[in-house]
Amino acid sequence: MRHCYIRGILAVIWVAAAVVCAVAGNFAMTGLYALIGAVFFYSAYSMWKKNEKGDH
């Protein structure tokens, strides 16, 4: 379950970096950072769901 939390935290960091880049006007990197954040969110969510089913 620890990996799920770490991936969730990394996702928040990448999305925050995307927001900072968008505010700064660097739209080329904003999409990349948002994509990486979304991948980490998906990974954390799918791992969380997998572990949730195994606990029952």
Please give a quick description of this structure.
The chain is mainly alpha-helical and about 55 residues long. The protein is about 95% helix and about 0% strand.
Overall structural class, as computed from helix and strand content, comes to mainly alpha
Largest sheet features: none
Number of alpha- plus pi-helical segments: 2
Percentage of helical residues?
over 70%
The count of β-strands is: 0
Query: Beta-strand level of the residues, as a percent range?
Result: under 5%
- The succession of helices and strands, N to C, reads HH
Q: Which regions contain 5 or more consecutive residues with pLDDT less than 50?
A: none
| Principal-axes shape call | elongated
Average pLDDT reading? 89
The Rg value, from CA coordinates, equals 13 Å
Q: Determine the N-to-C terminus distance.
A: 15 Å
